[in-house]
Amino acid sequence: MSKPSVMTSQTDDVFYFLSAHRSLKAAGIHSRLSVPAKDRHFQTAVTQAFARARAAGIDKPVLMGAIPFDMDQPSELFIPSCHGFFDRAERLEAASRRAAAAGQAVSARSMPDEPGFKSAVCQAIARFRHGDIRKAVLSRVYEVEFAEPLAADKIFDALCRQNPHGYQFQLPLSVGGHLVGVSPELLLRKHGASVHTFPLAGSAKRQADAHADQAAGDALLQSAKDHYEHSLVIEDIRGVLAPHCVELSIPDAPSLLSTRAMWHLGTPIEGRLADPSMTALKLACLLHPTPAICGFPTAAARELIGQIEPFQRGVFSGMVGWCDEEGNGEWAVTIRCATVAKNRARLFAGAGIVEASTPEAEWAETQAKLGTMLAAFGLTGMEALA
Fold first, then answer.
1. 76 is a catalytic site residue
2. Which of 25, 76, 154, 185 does the annotation list as catalytic?
3. Strand 105-111 relative to strand 23-33, pairing
4. What is the CA radius of gyration of the chain?
5. Count of H-run helices and E-run strands, the chain
6. Domain annotation covers residue 162
7. Are 291 and 238 in contact (CB under 8 A)?
8. What are the two backbone dihedrals, phi and then psi, of residue 107, each rounded to the nearest 5 degrees?
C-alpha cells in the first residue's frame, strides 16, 4: 500500500477496482473531486488534487471513482488515503471462500415498467424514421427493497465469485452507499503511449443448454442488425482516437465475447499516442459517452434519451476506474452495476435501439442483462416482478 496520510474523512471501508491488467485496492478518502468532467476547470482541479495529496504525504497518489453518464453532473472521484496494486487472483480467491449474500427482498419495481419501456422503444424507432438519429441506448432502473441492510462487500464478493472476468468494482458514493458492479466493457486503458479500448455493442442472452448457447452466439455473430449497431460504435471511436494516434489498429470485424449472462460483439482496438503525455482520464472523457451506451450521433441521441427516460442515470453508463499522476490508468464503462445504500438497491440495464429493433426483444435484453446483478444479490428470477 502507498504511504498513508492524515485522512480528511474517516472510514473503515476498503475500495476496489479489479482488472486482469492491474488491480487497485484502496482505503480511506483523503479528498473528493466533484467538479463535473465537462467543466473547463476539471483538468486543473485534477492536477491540484494530486498536488494536495502529495503535499499531505501520500506517495504516488491515484484518483479513482466514477464519472456520470452526463458529464455536466458532479463527478464521483476521490483520492484514497492509501492504496496499492496487487494480483487480482488474490481477491478472487478470498471471495470464493466467503459465504454467499442472502437477502430477503420485500418489494421490487422497474422504472419504466414493461409497457413504458416498450413504448419508449417505439418512440425511438419513430424518431429514427423521421430524423438523423441512427441509434439510441434506452435503459431502466430496477429498484429492490430488502428486509435488512445490505453489505456492499458481500455483493462484491458474490460478483467476484460468479463473474471472475471483466472489471469488478466497489466504490463509495458521496451521497452515501456504494457503487458495485462487474463491467465487461473497457472504455480506455493507457500506459505510456499505448492505448487500448474494447467496445461492446450487439448482445444475446446466454442459454443453459450448450448447443443452444453456441447457436445463440453464432446467430449474434451473423446478425445484420447487431453488426450495424456495432459499426456505429466503432466508427465513432475511430473518429475520436485517430487524430491523437500515430498508429491505430482496428479489426475489420467484431468477435464474440461471453459473460456469465450474455454474448456480446466486441472489437479490441489498440493505438499509439502521438503525445504520450495525454492522460488516460482526458482521453477517456473524449470517448465518453460512446454510442455503445448513448447512441449515434451522440448529442442528438443524448437529447432523445433525456426526453424519453423517466429518471436520471447518475453513474450508470458512465465510466469507472482510476488514473495516476503520470497519466496512466484504466476506465471501464459502468454497466452491470448497482448502487447500494442501507436496505435498498438500484440495478440498471440498457439496450441499444436501432431501426430494426423490436420492443419485445429489447425488453428481453434488459431482463437478461439484469441477471448478472440479480444473481449477486441472490435474487435469480426476481426480474419476473418487474
1. no
2. 185
3. unpaired
4. 20
5. 9, 20
6. yes
7. no
8. -160, 155
92 falls within a domain: no
Identify residue 106 by its one-letter amino acid code: V
For residue 36, how many other CB atoms are within 10 A of its CB? 17
Which residue out of 135, 154, 190, 282 is catalytically annotated? 135
Cell numbers at residue 309, please? 427516460
Domain with 326, as residue range(s), is 9-87+107-385
Which stretches within 148-279 are classed as H helix?
152-162, 210-222, 224-241
What CATH number does the domain containing 29 carry?
Answer: 3.60.120.10
Q: Is residue 344 part of a domain?
A: yes
Four-residue CA torsion sign, 289, 196, 202, 379:
negative
Tens of pLDDT, residues 92-106: 999 998 876 667 899
Q: How confident is the model at residue 11 (pLDDT cuts 50, 70, 90)?
A: very low
Count CA within 13 A, CB hemisphere, residue 225: 13
Cβ pair 368, 140 in contact under 8 A: no
Cβ pair 46, 34 in contact under 8 A: no
Residues in the chain: 386
Please give the tally of structural domains in the chain. Answer: 1
In what helix (H) or strand (E) does residue 341 lie, and over which residues does it extend? strand 337-341
Is 118 one of the catalytic residues? no
Question: Does some domain include residue 97?
Answer: no
Q: What is the pLDDT of residues 224-273, one digit of tens each?
A: 999 999 999 999 999 999 999 999 999 999 999 999 899 999 999 999 99
The predicted pLDDT at position 225 comes to 95
Grid cell locating 39: 467543466
Q: CA–CA separation, 370 vs 45, rounded Å? A: 36
The pLDDT tens digits of the residues spanning 307-350 come to 999 999 999 999 999 999 999 999 999 999 999 999 999 999 99
Angle at 51 between CA 45 and CA 52, to 5 degrees: 90
pTM over 0.85: yes
